Amino acid sequence: MNAGTQQLRKSVLMLALLAATLPAMAAGTKPVIASAVPNYTANQLTITGASFGTTAPKVVIGGHTATVARQRACKVVG
Fold first, then answer.
1. What are phi and psi of 7, to 5 degrees?
2. Which of residues 73 and 60 earns the better pLDDT score?
3. End-to-end alpha carbon distance in the chain
4. Residue ranges covered by each domain of the chain
5. Which is deepest, 8, 29, 57, 75, by most CB within 10 Å?
């Protein structure tokens, strides 16, 4: 397993832990992450949730800004 894959897995774990706590903290139109699922073959991360907005959000994973491939109010793929 290379360093990039290890970092992605650590980041996915951190996002999953954050997703478990965000619904209780979220209010109004703040984004809520319900899940973050990696696709290692496509080198993509799909984030689902609510209130992501109508324009592509900035996604930062482990200090690195991810490129958003497509986005909806409830899903971001980057």
1. -65, -40
2. 60
3. 21
4. 3-77
5. 8
